[in-house]
Amino acid sequence: MAGIYLPRAGQLSEYQQLPNAGDTALEAAEGAFGGLDRLERDVDSYLERHRLSYLTIERSALPIGPIRLRALTPGEAAIMPTLIRSAVGVTRNEALANKVQSGAATEGWRC
Q: Are residues 52 and 14 in the same domain?
């Protein structure tokens, strides 16, 4: 399965289901992932690898529907510079604050 680190396959689904069974978020994380310290070590190790696993998918297996373009609304056009500035090098909260402070969120555009 693409994007799944096989030794941990199924753990995210288990983590999502455990709170429904009455576990706290921490209990669910420890139960599904084998402890947060272990998960952090495994994620760090995975990210430090010089090779990432991938799966080749044939182009025919990924049908692409028709592509439609439209002009931006005035509100969308006004907020584009802010969105571009907020895409890299800032936290999610900083990006949201940039969007709200820009005053460009008009005419149907939702931040």
A: yes
DSSP class of residue 73 equals P
pLDDT in tens, 67-103: 999 999 988 888 788 778 777 777 878 877 776 776 6
Rounded CA separation 38/83 (Å): 36
Question: In terms of pTM, does the model score above 0.70?
Answer: no
State the residue range of the domain holding 13. 6-61
Burial 63-90 (b: 16+ CB within 10 A, else e): eeeeeeeeeeeeebebbeebbeebeeee
| Residue 13 within any structural domain of the chain | yes
- N- to C-terminal Cα separation, the chain: 34
Query: Domain boundary at 42, 61, 80, which?
Result: 61
Decide which of 61, 81, 102 is a domain's last residue.
61
The phi, psi pair for 102, rounded to 5°, reads -70, -25
